[in-house]
Amino acid sequence: MKTIHVERTASKGIAIGKAYLVDKTDLNISYDTIREQDITKEISRFEAAVANSVRELEALAVKDKIFDTHLEMIKDITLYDSVVSKIKENRQNAEASLEAAIAELIEIFEGIEDEYMRERTADIRDINERLLCNLQGVKHNPFENMNEEAILVAKDLSPSDTASFNTDYVLGFITQEGGITSHVSILAKGLGIPALVGVKDILNQIEPGDTIIMDAENGKILINPDNNTLSLYEKERIHQLKRSEQLSQLKELPAITKDGRKVSLCANVGSIQDIKKAIECGMDGVGLFRSEFLYMDNTHFPTEEEQYLVYKEAAQLSGPELTIRTLDIGGDKALSYYEFEKEENPFLGWRAIRISLDLKDMFKTQLTAILRASAYGKVRIMFPMIISMEELRMAKELLEECKKELDNKSISYDKEIKVGIMIETPASVLLVEDFAKEVDFFSIGTNDLTQYLLAVDRGNNKISKLYNSFHPAVLRSIRHVIRAGHKNNITVGMCGEFASDIRAAKLLLGLGLDEFSMSYREIPEMKNMIRNNSYEEAQAVAEKVCEKITIREVYEVLGFS
């Protein structure tokens, strides 16, 4: 038996089965210079490949909305122009020109700080592969010989791959590349099956037909285990299935402690599909709607009407709360249709509310769309990256302008729409008492707040171990924000990853957090934790934790190492 330890779990669970190694056809590309008289022919070949790919994607989009984005990208005039110009100027064939154009696009996305957007490079590579297959007339299906249950082991799996196999046969995924926000990870969570991604050199360690135990609870892969180990894991798998069923029964129950403290468990979402899935998990509303995906998964700045239709549907679905964060984008999050100046430190650069306040027409378009949608549900507006009262007041003034314009047109909206801000910088923590007098709610963004408070780039592997939201400075900042909010009678939520960390749940409950917003998959487990604890006990724990001056001491109080 061989054991492989894995750092990143994309979807938790345990799977036991035979390994099915995904073998994909290599597409050979010639880089020879073409003759001038062949330029028109190569452009025609590319256009035919695009047309065939569009037809394929239109069929796939009926079943999976992710292919709508692929359609947008493959039809994008920017991609077309880039490929054609390379055919003409570099005198390369369509395949080589496409590869060069795609490489440029991937470079843009890989420079984005947001992990979710970085993982969209998998979609770009999928588009590239589809176009190359159509250019070369290749129709290879790597799953055509899969006719029984198995665990997929692959270099990576694209959206097109996952649309090709029979999900009834797939027990789990193991990929050599990819990240926890990739399409295959999202698919695995949707199917409720385990997935381990980014497992180095896995293809050289597993043979077709090997018996595999995927322990995606503890980050382990066991190859050809003995009978005793198989028996133990089979019992654990059955136990987990029963627990999952028990948690699902909490869907209609409130998140209320044993001594009567009620909190809201909301979802972080980026699409209508996410909201529908979150409803199935028993969400209390949407605590963070990432509106930037409307911009990043597009070929142009979305119009008022395009945004309004999405926000309206989201409002109708979300019930008690839909908190829409205004555009949170910047030098580290690129748009294919807008050129950002290169910045030496994009984390401290032109981003989020700074862009919105500079591009006022774009900002007002978004605010107007949100206001119009507020007539159809409990919508809240949240401004990101606020560091000064001047910024907050400028944003609120623009919002008032939008309200007056709608009033003049007799267009309805929620006249009492609530406005809040993200607390995600040291400046916002220090000014929180003042902000609390001018907004209706706070939402703590622990991802950036931890990074900025500790001066740690969370994407830098050399110092990533220093990035820790259990640091006393972070915890005391969270306590300060919650106290300031409650002192001024406003609610305080949290939409950073820390809100879904089950190890921190009792602490955050004790600090008085009103709303936990997280990935919808985490809601049942968090609800179970809340319902099985008392607020009074949690307060005592939180008080002890905030007295500690080292991370180790914090861990000891919370009972883990």
UniProtKB/TrEMBL annotation:
Q: What class of enzyme is it?
A: transferase
Q: What is its EC number?
A: 2.7.3.9
Domain (PEP-utilising enzyme C-terminal): residue spans on this chain: 245-533
| The keyword Magnesium is annotated on this UniProt entry | yes
The record lists the catalysed reaction(s) as: L-histidyl-[protein] + phosphoenolpyruvate = N(pros)-phospho-L-histidyl-[protein] + pyruvate
* GO MF terms held by the record: kinase activity; metal ion binding; phosphoenolpyruvate-protein phosphotransferase activity
What Pfam families would the database entry show?
Answer: PEP-utilisers_N, PEP-utilizers, PEP-utilizers_C
Catalytic-site annotation from UniProt: H183 (tele-phosphohistidine intermediate), C495 (proton donor)
Segments forming domain Phosphotransferase system enzyme I N-terminal? 10-120
InterPro entries attached to this UniProt entry: PEP-util_enz_mobile_dom, PEP-utilizing_PTS_enzyme, PEP_util_C, PEP_util_CS, Phosphohistidine_dom_sf, PTS_EI, PTS_EI-like, PTS_EIN
Give the residues the record marks as binding phosphoenolpyruvate: R290, R325, N447, D448, R458
Cofactor names from the entry are: Mg(2+)
List UniProt keywords, sorted A-Z.
Cytoplasm, Kinase, Magnesium, Metal-binding, Phosphotransferase system, Sugar transport, Transferase, Transport
Annotated positions binding Mg(2+): E424, D448
Give GO terms for biological process.
phosphoenolpyruvate-dependent sugar phosphotransferase system
Q: Determine the domain of life of the protein's source.
A: Bacteria
Q: What is its main location?
A: cytoplasm
Q: PEP-utilising enzyme mobile domain: which residues? A: 147-219
How is this protein annotated for GO cellular component?
cytoplasm
- Supply the PANTHER family for this chain: PHOSPHOENOLPYRUVATE-PROTEIN PHOSPHOTRANSFERASE
Give the family per the record: Belongs to the PEP-utilizing enzyme family.
Functional summary from the UniProt entry: General (non sugar-specific) component of the phosphoenolpyruvate-dependent sugar phosphotransferase system (sugar PTS). This major carbohydrate active-transport system catalyzes the phosphorylation of incoming sugar substrates concomitantly with their translocation across the cell membrane. Enzyme I transfers the phosphoryl group from phosphoenolpyruvate (PEP) to the phosphoryl carrier protein (HPr).
Write down what this protein is called. Answer: Phosphoenolpyruvate-protein phosphotransferase
Query: Which species is listed as the source?
Result: Mobilitalea sibirica
